[in-house]
Amino acid sequence: MGGKPLFKNKIYVTRPVVPTIEELAPYLEDILGSRWLTNDGRYVRELENKLAEFLGVPYCAAVCNGTMGLLLSIRALGLSGEVITTPFTFPATIHALEWCNITPVFCDIDPLTYNIDVSKIGPLISPRTTGIMPVHIFGNPCDVGEIERIAEYHELKVIYDAAHAFGVEHQGKGIGGFGDASIFSFHATKIFNTVEGGAICCRDAELDQRLRDFRNFGIRSEEEVIGPGINAKMNEIQAAFGILNLKKVRGGIQKRRGLFERYHGCLSKIPGLRFQRLSPGVSYNYSYMIIEIIPEDFGLTRDEVYMCMWQEGIKVRKYFWPLCSNYPCYNALPSANKDLLPHANRISERVLSLPLYEDMTDGDVDAITEVFSSCHNYAAEIRRLISSVL
Ligand code: T4K
I need a surface site. Which of 75, 100, 223, 367 has the fewest CB within 10 A? Predict the structure, then answer.
């Protein structure tokens, strides 16, 4: 508001965990010395074994990114026609369907958990439906029990987009163990990263083999190509990065938990702010700090608060706005009708993702929450000022 920004050095919504040069150097020496750089190398194998154990899943195939993980699973499970999914997600979820010539059918979300509203899935099932692709949004597990029941009854496949849910457990079970397949993202912005990368977890040995073939052009052996695969391989340097970062994940989650709880403590005192409701029986990964702003009670809209935050050098993000069903490439679909997606449209206009990462301090959290207090306390003045400059 004309003063100096609170954070001279901007504070981002997230920062990646990285290994030290000293940690990485022996791996690089080995990889460069052996000249085995990719195509099912020993470090990819080692990472996959470690991930399967960490995630508590029978099979885990590493891929070059989460989006390719979605595409491979869709193809390997033979989905076609229509797939029911949530509009409240990152574009990758919906684009993956579109890239496989599948029509996404948008289902509204639960206004408290922000996950797909399982009670609305049934009426969307048509003779063309072959699967459901829910997202454990911000790492919060979907109603996996009910989704399994619906899928079994209607003989549908389930692919979970678990991009945000690395390390999450649902009733003592690793979240990657539900559905026909679950996809994790290991992008730099995730709590576990391999710079870019991802993995597909499943419980079926045959499917796992098919996914592994598909990620390498469909090549099963030098003399056999089993289908139209693609190149979705992770390379050895990414895998080494992952092996090192995996050691830091549990500590990272603990650190994030402290920051998350501090945010909660401070923000819950301010009127007009609401938190995503976490599913019961969940061991959460604290990957995102999401706040919902109720303008009538807070005094400012989400977009007004966003402007204030950016002025203070706090690079909050509007995850996930715009809503996928409102993108020009999807808004003509019958299921994209705003009247059918009231909760998703409202939540998308109200949420903000706040900075949350291991290197943050309690002082950072206190400073950010202080800005929220000021926004609320001086809402009328701020609104006047904003409208005078726009
Ligand atoms: N499904 C879901 C539900 C997903 O959320 C995603 C990805 C996917 C599928 C697909 O998985 P991948 O194919 O990506 O593996 C970011 C990520 O690029 C994206 O992976 C992620 N979701 C999404 C939620 O967040 P942007 O466009 O917000 O990224 P960007 O570049 O604005 O980065 C956000 C902040 O992170 C920056 O302001 C600063 C910090 N940052 C970022 C990078 C790349 C760093 O500090 N260092 C970095 O190297 O999408």
Answer: 223
List, for residues 278-314, the tens digit of each pLDDT value. 988 999 999 999 999 999 999 999 999 999 999 999 9
Nearest CA to ligand 1 atom 37: 12
Q: Which atom of ligand 1 is nearest to the CA of 89?
A: 3
- The amino acid at residue 189 is T
Residues lining ligand 1, CB < 6 A?
Answer: 12-16, 65-67, 89-90, 92-93, 135, 161, 163-164, 185, 187-189, 198, 315, 317, 319
How far does residue 172's CA lie from ligand 1's centre (Å)? 28
Sequence-distant (≥ 6) Cβ neighbours of residue 263 within 8 angstroms: 289, 354, 356, 365, 368, 369
Are the C-beta atoms of 168 and 284 separated by less than 8 Å? yes
For residue 91, give Cα distances in angstroms to 43, 180, 262: 30, 22, 31
Q: How far apart are CA 91 and CA 67, in angstroms?
A: 10
Compute the 3-state secondary structure of the chain and give helix, strand, coil in percent, each to the nearest 5.
Answer: 45, 15, 40
Question: With contact defined as beta carbons under 8 Å apart, do 63 and 233 qualify?
Answer: yes
Residue pLDDT, tens place only, 349-380: 999 999 999 999 999 999 999 999 999 999 99
Q: Which residue has the tokens 């699973």?
A: 73
What is the DSSP secondary structure assignment for residue 277, as one 8-state letter?
A: P
The residue that leads in pLDDT, 109 or 387, is 109
The whole-number average pLDDT for the span 314-338 is: 98
Ligand 1: which of 11, 189, 316 to mutate, most ligand atoms within 8 Å of CB?
189
Closest C-alpha residue for ligand 1 atom 50: 189
CA of 239 to the centre of ligand 1 (A): 19
Q: Ligand 1 centroid vs 197 CA: distance in angstroms?
A: 12
What is the separation of C-alpha 91 from the centre of its chain, rounded to a whole number of angstroms? 11
Q: How far apart are CA 14 and CA 32, in angstroms?
A: 31
Task: For 24-53, give the DSSP string.
Answer: HHHHHHHHHHHT--SSS-HHHHHHHHHHHH
- Say how many Å lie between the CA of residue 287 and the centre of ligand 1: 12
